[in-house]
What we know:
Elements: H1 9-37, H2 42-64
Amino acid sequence: MPDDQAPNWGHFMGTGLEMAVGVVLGYFVGDWLGKRYGWNPWASVIGAMIGLIAGAYVLIKEVNRPSK
Length: 68
C-alpha cells in the first residue's frame, strides 16, 4: 500500500480518545456539580451524556471533513 493511501491509525485513535475524554470530563464535572448542589446522581449522568454528545459531534465533523 503506498504511503499516501496508508491508514492513519494514530489519527483515528486520537479521535476515539477525544470522545472518551469528553465522557470522563463530563462525568466528573457533573459529579462535582451534583455534590455541590445536591443533584446526584442525575448531574453525573447528564454530564456524561453531554460529553458523549460532544464526542459524537467531533467524530461526525471529522468523518465529514474532506480528505487532503
